[in-house]
Amino acid sequence: MKIETREGYEGTGPGAITPDGCAVELYARLPVGDEPDVIAAAVPAGAHILELGSGVGRVTHPLLERGFTVTAVDESPEMLARVRGARTICGPIETLDLGETFDVVMLGSFLVHAGDEEVRRGLLRTCARHVAEGGCVLIQREGADYHTKVPRERVDPSGFTVRITSVEPAGEGVHSVHAEYVFPDAVWTQTFLSRPLTKEQFESALAEAGLRVDRYLTPDGIWVRAVPVG
Q1: At 129, is the secondary structure helix, strand, or coil?
Q2: Residue-by-residue DSSP string for 179-230
Q3: Span 65-71, mean pLDDT?
Q4: Contact 52, 127 (CB under 8 A)
């Protein structure tokens, strides 16, 4: 079954494009950053992780190599086809209900900044629904200047350039963000909706889902460890 592109999201470039504008071939090329190290330092060794929005397994595979068990969820079958060594589940994250719980639930890729507030509420409810007693939720937030330091670009050591070319108003509290990924042999673009959240707004959104911040894991506040309230 083909999933329709989400309104306000689009992508261009070679290969399959997911409903939120991500290019599968692009994400298969992107190197992993420090995410696996941040995650491994914040959770028990050998934990079972529910990774929401796994994509092609860019973070999944390093976590598996570190001895974690991973259940990878994504709404794109083309993305999940690239994942190796993990249980995979295809479907929208915001309505997911597996009827089981996990030591760790991870919501990366800035998904908590979904432009649609109802989608964001669904994402966080999914996190709360699937975290085991005594477990935790790891969430990746946008950096403080993500929507204001524009245009900007970063040249990756591996030889490609990432540009955030524009951030434009797209409704109350929502921005349309346009990104370009330039490789020597190909160019991909992605346009997506993002809702900036102050620390207070973020923590309020967590509370609405029955979660609270346990601690901020990185000095920039981008990675957060949350736990169920109570």
Answers
A1: helix
A2: EEEE-SS-EEEEEEEE----HHHHHHHHHHTTEEEEEE-STTS-EEEEEE--
A3: 98
A4: yes
| Cβ 34 vs Cβ 220: under 8 Å | no
Query: Are the C-beta atoms of residues 83 and 60 closer than 8 Å to each other?
Result: yes
Residue 14 preceded by cis peptide, ω within 30: no
DSSP secondary structure letters along 38-88: HHHHHS-TT-EEEEET-TTTTTHHHHHHTT-EEEEEES-HHHHTT--SSEE
Please report, for residues 61, 103, 109, 155, the alpha-carbon distance to residue 69 in angstroms, rounded to integers and kept in the order given.
Answer: 10, 10, 20, 33
pLDDT at 3 over 70: no
Dihedral class, residue 63 (left if φ above 0, else alpha if ψ from -120 to 50, else beta): alpha
pTM exceeding the 0.90 threshold for the entire prediction: yes
Residues 165-193 pLDDT 10s: 999 999 999 999 999 999 999 999 999 99
| Exposed / middle / buried, residue 72 (Cβ in 10 Å: 0-12, 13-18, 19+) | buried
Q: What is the pLDDT of residues 138-166, one digit of tens each?
A: 999 999 899 999 999 999 999 999 999 99
For CA atoms 156, 159, 165, 171, give the dihedral sign.
negative
φ, ψ of residue 146 in degrees (nearest 5): -60, -40
